[in-house]
Amino acid sequence: MEEVKKTGTYRGHELTGRLEVRLAMQDEMALIDLLEDNTKTKSEVVKALIQNKRLYYHLNEKEQNIYYALVDLRLGLKRIKSSLHGLDDKQRLKLFNDDPEYMRSWKSVADQCIEQWGHVIDRLSD
Predict the structure, then answer these.
(1) Quick one: 120 and 74 in the same domain?
(2) Do 67 and 118 fall into the same domain?
(3) What is the span of the domain harbouring residue 96?
(4) pTM of the predicted model, to two decimals?
(5) Which member of 12, 69, 78, 116 has the lowest number of beta carbons within 10 Å of its beta carbon?
(6) How far apart are CA 34 and CA 76, in angstroms?
(7) Are strands 13-15 and 8-10 parallel, antiparallel or unpaired?
(8) How far apart are CA 94 and CA 40, in angstroms?
(9) Is residue 33 within 8 Å of residue 27, measured between CB atoms?
(10) Half-sphere exposure (CA, 13 Å, Cβ side) for 21?
């Protein structure tokens, strides 16, 4: 990767620290949605998207929806597991009908789902 200086040019482009972009209306609305969900500025959101390489233009709309659904499902399952971890054994067992084998089985399947969904998410984001 070429070294980036604070001023000058990079690959024939003048570096100003500012970038003007034109977005389709639906993309601009998506950016506004991102801004409303965060306490970040437009610049911070765009910078985070670039740093995280979350630019999924290679996916069609259906694939993007699947990607985001998997991300949400995986995060939700992690949150449930974390909440369960915070409970004592008696409370946890009560949630699983006092069946320790069912609880162990559920945790095992949840771990497998989290791992597999992570692999699918990684493949979609490549």
Answers:
(1) yes
(2) yes
(3) 61-125
(4) 0.53
(5) 12
(6) 19
(7) antiparallel
(8) 41
(9) no
(10) 11
